[in-house]
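Structure in, sequence out. Go:
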């Protein structure tokens, strides 16, 4: 029996506990930062706060104690918001060891360092005591649909082929299909940057713009994500896969997308602090990733006009209608 620790009991972490917990070969411990989440799972078998209506398998145990969650774990699944990754791994470091496999499921960039999440994990643990074996799980996957058992396909990316195969076997079943990939840079950047484009797609919807606008946005958004990915050492072909185009289309068009929902409200004229206050503790990673993406693009000399306009809206309060107009009136050029 495999011992798996899932660190982070938001909607996505809870959905992954459903996937892993329904396999009899696993014993799963789900760490929650919120005491009410642990109480809800212990008493009712449901995470009423972040994923109501979906029963967790009996093999999933919730705990608010990191040491308890990590005890004996062979696979550590990281599902906390990006801004919490470094401090939480710092707290966990004493309970971690080189035999563990680490799977990052957070789609974001660290604001201060511009690092991807697998890089943050490696940075923290190298500074403490060892170099971890890390992979990144990404792809088009709304938590509610995964928990419901809708057929879903994702990818696990790692330079460590053995890790990728072990994680693939641990997660894969008839309702959750896992592919392997060795382009960690491409998979992580695709997952992080698509959230920014999804906010822009929501802005279009909030402004009452039609399918033409969203189709153009997705296509040109993919182009700028690909430019930055290649500049950072990732592969162009990854952008045509699950962690690239697949996740981008889902997040830009699906009503369950928190990032798109933020954009919709911005397009309607609401202010960002009010929108975030109404999210009741859930996270739209694109809000935190946009500033880091602009910084990363600047450091690589990559032009990202959609991302730059979303930065102006989120950070400087630029009117969404003006941002769209500025995108459309840029100097005309060759598509490639």
């Amino acid at each position: 029996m495999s011992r798996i620790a899932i660190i982070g009991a938001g909607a996505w972490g809870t959905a992954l506990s459903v996937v892993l917990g329904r396999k009899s070969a696993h014993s799963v411990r789900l760490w929650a930062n919120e005491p009410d989440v642990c109480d809800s799972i212990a008493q009712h078998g449901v995470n009423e706060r972040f994923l109501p209506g979906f029963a967790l398998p009996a093999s999933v145990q919730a705990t608010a104690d990191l040491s308890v969650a990590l005890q004996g774990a062979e696979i550590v699944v990281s599902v906390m918001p990006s801004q919490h990754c470094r401090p939480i791994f710092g707290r966990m470091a004493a309970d971690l060891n080189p035999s563990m496999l680490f799977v990052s499921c957070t789609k974001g960039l660290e604001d201060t360092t511009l690092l991807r999440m697998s890089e943050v994990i490696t940075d923290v643990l190298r500074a403490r005591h060892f170099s971890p074996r890390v992979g990144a799980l990404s792809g088009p996957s709304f938590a509610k649909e995964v928990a419901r058992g809708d057929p879903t396909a994702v990818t696990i990316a790692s330079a460590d082929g053995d890790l990728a195969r072990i994680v693939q076997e641990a997660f894969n079943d008839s309702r959750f299909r896992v592919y392997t990939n060795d382009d960690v840079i491409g998979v992580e950047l695709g997952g992080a940057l698509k959230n920014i484009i999804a906010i822009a797609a929501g802005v279009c919807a909030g402004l009452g713009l039609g399918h033409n606008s969203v189709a153009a946005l997705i296509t040109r958004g993919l182009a700028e994500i690909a430019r930055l990915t290649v500049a950072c050492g990732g592969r162009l072909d990854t952008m045509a896969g699950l962690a690239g185009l697949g996740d981008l289309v889902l997040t830009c068009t699906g009503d369950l997308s928190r990032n798109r929902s933020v954009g919709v409200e911005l397009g309607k004229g609401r202010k960002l602090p009010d929108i975030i206050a109404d999210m009741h503790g859930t996270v739209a990673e694109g809000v935190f990733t946009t500033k880091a993406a602009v910084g990363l693009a600047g450091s690589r000399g990559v032009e990202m006009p959609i991302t730059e306009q979303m930065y102006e809206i989120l950070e400087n309060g630029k009117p969404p209608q003006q941002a769209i107009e500025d995108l459309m009136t840029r100097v005309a050029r060759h598509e490639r």
